[in-house]
């Protein structure tokens, strides 16, 4: 453990003084401090817990920690990257807590988890948690702690049963999964008792004040960044997109009540501002926000944006970013083929992409980053040729603008219409094709690792039978080879890698997250899938 970086922190909330009998709690991020403290979700949950006088919260990271209670009652984890699960197990061991919930007794803390990975599909990790919080933390966190206070003196089994009554609180041990044979599909997922809810609904916060940083520090991965959440979810509903489908409906922060006060609060301690959200430029008052930031008192502020919707990349936006020290902007185009974009419901024409590049250049930006994807269901080799052509056309339309194409492989995500569709094994070759044709043109092509996409898909569509596999690979390393080796060792005890990753699943199949209700009912997702297939 290195020296604590906490003394560089500037807090933007008032931690409570813990009162007598406060719940001793550890709230951990399963990675290094610089990564964890750059997660807006982690910051906000920590501040929510630390602002309660009935909680005594200490933070724990893989490389540093605050002074920890000798006997915590609650140990929480925020999981935002799948492969950090190994660190969760390491941290549990370092706290002398059994890694399996089933082996914990009343002498052990309750281990709870939340965050995007667990909300999407907690099942591969279900065995490690006593409690999983599904959805937006705004109301859910307080509901959790309040109910824990009520159940605090009960034995562990009763504590869990009482917590299970709270909407959004998922207690994996209270559900039993049966399979059509050890390596077959799931047969059913049932609560183990009549008074346990048959499904758990992900919680949705509907207020117009969204999140903002609760701490600013030079030790963050984005040094001294102050982050403001401008929108939550995305109204575009691209068929593969977890950031949209899992967090629907689209919500926007009120400019007067939320965004401007938050920005002004943060800029008292830093001059680096990050505007966050899946589609920030779709905020209905985004123009007014730009006008606000273009006032002289903000001249020194460095503004970064997460990716913007292509047809909202105006010259004014590019000029504002240039003025505030950004050189580049990112747009997600998915493919150069309009047919493929129709399949995924991306409402975007090639001439709008060209216009975006022209605006970026005219506004003074020096580079444009595009995001694409290969292996989108229904994609043919000719669609890739169109992607190459689109990049060539962009070069001609905006000469001198540096072009980067970041490219990932399609991975099926739970609660999206494409959750039933597998990873195309041709994807790796398709990435190589793009590389071969784009790099000689002077286009910076940055493929995401295909092997990593396969691992992501495995975890994304995994069920509880992956638990022993995750425990094995934790010791073998994070490579795809490690996962293959573990599959070999466990042959006969679970389906093979292909089943989870590459197979198209029947819409009749019981999904690992069947008992966990996302924003849209299954029947709606099936309809959206059918619309997508009609464009093949
Ligand atoms: S526009 Fe981007 S964030 Fe919105 S649904 Fe499509 S891929 Fe997701």
Account of the protein in words:
There is one protein chain. The chain is an alpha/beta fold and 536 residues long. It has two domains: 6-201, Rossmann fold; 224-451, Alpha-Beta Horseshoe (pyruvate-formate lyase- activating enzyme), CATH 3.80.30. The chain has helices at 33-36, 40-50, 85-94, 116-120, 137-151, 156-163, 242-245, 255-266, 286-293, 315-323, 338-343, 350-362, 381-397, 427-438, 450-460, 467-476, 480-489, 497-501, 522-533, and strands at residues 10-11, 23-28, 55-60, 74-78, 110-114, 131-133, 169-170, 175-179, 186-191, 200-201, 215-216, 225-229, 231-232, 251-252, 272-276, 302-305, 328-334, 367-374, 402-409, 444-447, 516-517. The strands form seven sheets. A six-stranded mixed sheet has the order 3-2-4-5-6-7. A four-stranded parallel sheet has the order 17-18-19-20. The longest helix is centred in the C-terminal third of the chain and has 17 residues, at 381-397. The radius of gyration is 24 Å and the shape is globular. The structure holds iron/sulfur cluster (SF4). Iron/sulfur cluster is lined by residues 234, 236-238, 241, 243-244, 278-279, 309, 332.
List keywords for this structure.
Rossmann fold; pyruvate-formate lyase- activating enzyme; 2 domains; 4-stranded parallel β-sheet; 19 helices; 34% helix
Secondary structure elements and their pairing?
Layout: E1 10-11, E2 23-28, H1 33-36, H2 40-50, E3 55-60, E4 74-78, H3 85-94, E5 110-114, H4 116-120, E6 131-133, H5 137-151, H6 156-163, E7 169-170, E8 175-179, E9 186-191, E10 200-201, E11 215-216, E12 225-229, E13 231-232, H7 242-245, E14 251-252, H8 255-266, E15 272-276, H9 286-293, E16 302-305, H10 315-323, E17 328-334, H11 338-343, H12 350-362, E18 367-374, H13 381-397, E19 402-409, H14 427-438, E20 444-447, H15 450-460, H16 467-476, H17 480-489, H18 497-501, E21 516-517, H19 522-533
Parallel strand pairs: 2-3, 2-4, 4-5, 5-6, 10-21, 12-15, 15-16, 17-18, 18-19, 19-20
Antiparallel strand pairs: 1-11, 6-7, 8-9, 13-14
């Amino acid at each position: 453990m290195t020296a604590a970086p906490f003394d560089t922190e500037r807090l933007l909330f008032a931690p409570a003084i813990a009162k007598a009998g406060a719940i001793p709690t550890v709230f951990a991020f399963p990675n290094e401090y610089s990564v964890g403290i750059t997660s807006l979700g982690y910051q906000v949950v920590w501040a929510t817990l630390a602002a309660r006088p009935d909680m005594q919260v200490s933070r724990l990271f893989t490389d540093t920690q605050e002074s920890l209670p000798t006997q915590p009652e609650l140990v929480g984890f925020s999981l935002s990257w799948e492969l950090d699960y190994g660190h969760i197990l390491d941290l549990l061991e370092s706290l002398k807590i059994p890694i399996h919930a089933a082996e914990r007794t009343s002498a052990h803390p309750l281990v709870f988890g939340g965050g995007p990975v667990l909300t999407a599909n907690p099942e591969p990790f279900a065995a490690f948690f006593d409690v999983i919080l599904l959805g937006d933390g705004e109301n859910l966190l307080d509901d959790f702690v309040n109910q824990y206070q009520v159940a605090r003196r009960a034995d562990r089994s009763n504590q869990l049963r009482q917590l299970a009554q709270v909407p959004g609180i998922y207690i994996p041990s209270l559900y039993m999964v049966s399979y059509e044979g050890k390596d077959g599909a799931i047969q059913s997922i049932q609560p183990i008792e009549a008074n346990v809810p048959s499904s758990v609904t992900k919680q949705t916060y509907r207020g117009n004040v969204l999140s903002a940083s609760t701490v600013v520090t030079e030790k963050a991965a984005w040094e001294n960044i102050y982050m403001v959440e401008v929108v939550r979810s995305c109204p575009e509903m691209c068929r593969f997109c977890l950031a949209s489908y899992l967090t629907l409906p689209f919500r926007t922060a009120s400019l007067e009540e939320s965004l401007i006060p938050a920005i002004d609060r943060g800029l008292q301690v830093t001059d680096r501002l990050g505007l966050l959200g899946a589609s920030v430029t779709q905020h209905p008052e985004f123009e007014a926000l730009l006008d606000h930031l273009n006032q002289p008192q903000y001249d020194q502020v460095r503004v970064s944006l997460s990716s913007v919707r292509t047809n909202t990349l105006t010259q004014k936006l590019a000029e504002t970013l240039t003025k505030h020290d950004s050189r580049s902007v990112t747009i997600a185009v998915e493919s150069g083929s309009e047919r493929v974009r129709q399949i995924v419901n991306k409402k975007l024409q090639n001439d709008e992409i060209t216009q975006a590049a022209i605006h970026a250049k005219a506004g003074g930006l020096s580079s444009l980053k595009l995001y694409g994807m290969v292996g989108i269901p229904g994609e043919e080799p000719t669609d890739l040729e169109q992607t190459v052509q689109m990049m060539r056309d962009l070069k001609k339309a905006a000469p001198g603008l540096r072009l980067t194409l970041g490219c990932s492989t399609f991975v099926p995500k739970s609660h999206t219409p494409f959750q039933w569709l597998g990873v195309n094994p041709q994807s790796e070759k398709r990435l190589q094709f793009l590389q071969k044709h784009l790099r000689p043109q002077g286009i910076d092509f940055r493929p995401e690792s295909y092997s990593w996409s396969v691992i992501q898909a495995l975890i994304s569509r995994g069920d509880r039978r992956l638990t022993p596999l995750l425990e094995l690979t934790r010791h073998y390393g994070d490579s795809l080879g490690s996962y293959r080796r573990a599959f070999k060792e466990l042959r006969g005890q679970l389906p093979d890698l292909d089943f989870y990753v590459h197979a198209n699943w029947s819409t009749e199949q019981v999904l690992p997250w069947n008992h966990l209700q996302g924003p849209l009912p299954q029947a709606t997702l099936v309809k959206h899938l059918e619309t997508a297939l009609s464009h093949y």
